[in-house]
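Sample pair:
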Amino acid sequence: MSIRKYRAPLLFLLPAFALLAVVSIYPLAFGVYMAFTNISTTKGKWLSWDFVGLENFARIARELASPDSNLFRALVNTVVFTVVNVTLQVVTGVAYAFMLNARSLPLKRLWRTLMIVPWAVPGYISIMAWLFLYQYSYGYVNQLLLNLGLPRVDWLGQTLDTFWPWVSINLTNTWLAYPFIMTVTLAALQSVPPELVDAAKVDGASTWGVFRAVVFPHILPPLTVATVLTTITTFQQFGVVWLLTGGGPAIVVPGIGTLYTTELLMTYGFRTIWQYGDYGYGAAYSLLIAALVVPASIYAMKKMRVVGE
């Protein structure tokens, strides 16, 4: 009886299930299979490959154990970049949220619109605009520095500078991402009950006392969730780095090879698959990245559920 009852709905859902299997389940399953093979477009193993067991994972372990490898550098770069950039995003977003929440702010609607622009413009367009601004010879940023009597800065590593590319990447990603923290914090600030603030002031609490006892406890839970989500997103950052520097500048070190100064874990994986054609190793690498990201995402969703309740 129950099968007949749901037969028609299941038949209608069958095309969707078939499409899901083709575009999602099969590629995922084949990717897991590739992680245990030596399939490659550059080693004669594209149409005929061998099962290599855990060799790809062992290779990843060896590279992580070598401080001179690009993978080790990418891991260190990603951790440092994530810590620094998430801090910049949180500080910037919270500061702007408090500014927009101030009653004395003139033209508040205009400011809110301007502050949300980085989030509204498609990321690719924004990054390409920053790429033009950062150009060493004709970029507007360097032209402004020259007009102020200051020297040009190698924002993109075009002259093999290894410091300023990190500055440009962090500034650009902060500019693109801070509106999320700002929006969450602003919504939390506007949800603080005014009667609690008034009661604290009646009790003689100072501005700092009101913030510590009333405001901060209200904004902390949603800000924590937003920070966790921002950390996950920043850890997976690819577009900003790849479009601005391509993971470079690339420096050739005798006896070691080519090292990429601004390489992150995501750009390393992309380079491994699409430039080097090492699909087996790249698939194993992707599985390990997923093993890091998925638990963090589950934790973030649980925190969101708790905050929602």
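Residues 55-308 form a domain with the MetI-like fold fold (CATH 1.10.3720.10).
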